[in-house]
Amino acid sequence: MAVKLDFFTPSEYHVNLAMSMTSVTGSLMTFFVVFYNGNVFARYNQLYDLTKGLNENALYVIAILSREFGATDLAMVRKLARLLVASAFIFFFERTN
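^ that's the sequence the OP posted. Answer follows.
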């Protein structure tokens, strides 16, 4: 498009290349870029589901602890909940740069 609109003339830079030679490489490049982006997005979705599951499981454990031990030893439930939340935060901080 830039050549047709005369924004870029390859002869000035001595880079004359027939556009028919780039059709195969261009289509392969497009395929691999789309394929790679699909893989990256699939890995992101898997990581998102796992971290969401970690948070839900932590809340589930805290709910069970408060139901089982909340009436007898509230200080222990609070301490265990703090340790569980702290371990989840440590996990998230270890995953980041």
